[in-house]
Amino acid sequence: xxxxxRILIGMLGLDQHEVGAVTVARLLRDAxxxxxxxxxxxxxxxIVKTAGEESVDVIGLSCHSWEYLHYTDELLAGLAAxxxxxxxxxxGSVITAADRATLLAKGVAAAFGPGALPEDIIATxxxxxxxxxxxxx
Amino acid sequence: MSDAGAAPHGxxxxxxxxxxxxxxxxxxxxxxxxxxxxxxxxYPFTRGRRPAGADGxxxxxxxxxxxxxxxxxxxxxxxxxxGATGLDVIxxxxxxxxxxxxxxxxxxxxxxxxxxxxxxxDWLDLYDGLPLDRLTLSHSVPxxxxxxxxxxxxxxxxxxxxxxxxxxVQAPFYCEDCGYATHMPFELRVRLAVDSIEFASRAMxxxxxxxxxxxxxxxxGLDAVEEMALGFxxxxxxxxELVRRRVPVDRFAPRIAILVNFRMDFFExxxxxxxxxxxxxxxxxxxxxxxxxxxxxxxIAAHTSGLTLTAQQPVNNVVRGATQALxxxxxxxxxxxxxxxDEAFRTPSPEGHLVAFRTQQVIALETGVTRVADPLGGSWxxxxxxxxxxxxxxxxxxxxxxxxxxxxLCDGKWFRALFLDAMERRAHQLNAGRLVQxxxxxxxxxxxxxxxxxxxxxxKIAPAAPRIERLRALRRERDAGLVAAALRAVCGxxxxxxxxxxxxxxxxxxxxxxxxxxxxxxxxxxxRPPDPFGMVxxxx
Lengths: 137, 540
Known about the structure:
heterodimer; A: alpha/beta; five-stranded parallel beta sheet; 5 strands; 45% helix; B: nine-stranded parallel beta sheet
């Protein structure tokens, strides 16, 4: 089967509520994506390094504590500094509608709060993968 | 006609027990009344651990702890002023992971999801001015640290530790899924549980240092049978370890308690609690040979379910909390905590706490449901459900124990797979409409109209940054030589697999060592790097 794109799924800081990340990773895998799963306890430099080494199309981070408020800016800055134009998607139970607006303003490509539909997550990932595929020279 | 008002459930319980449309005398389980049910307060305690005519009340408490100890102390006073009859304290993420707030990874999580506790001064500040001998103090904090902190706080305050009441959660098996100390090896986690239980059974004999937490098993999406089976497997392992240590079962068993969940399947959850009491009584008397009747009657406390709360239409969570709390009262539990309506987003706000207490108070003071002991006892349906659940729980315990030592099931990720599969199963059920949540996949509202109580859910707790500076000052002020010697003793005791870990942990806590340093010393004793992140050296 042809891969629908490579997605990094991981978590930041000490947040240990991993089931959301695993559920989304399985969902994307079943939808035809290749998933690079980094699991828990990552700091932004590790995410940036892994995303670069694994040539992922999208970075998806699971947030079930407010630590993402602290790490998002650092992560986006780290990606820019590394010259990696990889879209970042955040998703998690603590993200409210107001948070979503804040995150999009910061430069996050998409943010999913609780109750996000699987089909919306998959469609967003497909759109981001497609947008990032450069036309042949 | 829309089917929106019709019952969505098929004819089976959430754990998959098939149901008939109605139950009658033929469905009452076989067996003698005294052997199967017994009166309330009598073996096998199916109908409750309290005898009829005793006070039908319960400890009313709410999950609390935020910021530093001082802020949490103020929060406790607010809760007590509004009717709390006990406290339930949860540590923040670093505390639960045995990490210090000044660890580089901790900073954004300090005090945001619980209280930041790392040294004795934090315990002294946490309970400053509160009557330690008159409150029941429950803890979701690493158990040995909680026992040491509470014991030393009582002694400093001139309170006899034997008067302390309350509990601390023990979670050596399933910590992968609740976030407790995932970086401690299995053997060390079990040893810390056994040592803290043994110590408390002598030094704090009224305190429940053996609180089996099945709440988070259920809130991880596992069903009622899985919740209790996994809980019993953990209880049974710890009991066997304590007995192997020659701790008399009648000394520690009267202070075993189970913290269960109560989700939305009303009768199954009530039946689960009754089945658990009966299973426990038979296990303790017939299998472990306990002779003290108090060792047969397990104390059950409960939280209403955070998993069943929804971010959509948060006011609906008030109704869910009330429904679940009523079920818990009807099941005859000893302590209740209503997960607050805003818990889908955040740690409880003052408004959330207030609604949760008022929920408990309305049930206690207005409904009259406590006038009669075990008012549902004898219901054909409920007794049938209780019997069938007990049977299935027992079967699952036997199946798991036949699979070999629990260490292999933990380290081999067998338990972990159960949790991961359960959450995925739940997501599928919700998506397919087999599981219905009002506001989520029934009676949805446009986001713009879903504003009731929304303002509360948008408020956030900032990390307790000043605490980090204060901890650095504490580190400078303490006797460095004394702390280093105490930590070396912890490490030495950890290396000596026959040593008791509580005396050196209490001495280190008293000397001013922090939880992160003690975890480092314990890990070093097991040949692991002191800091799981490899960022902080051991201070000796």
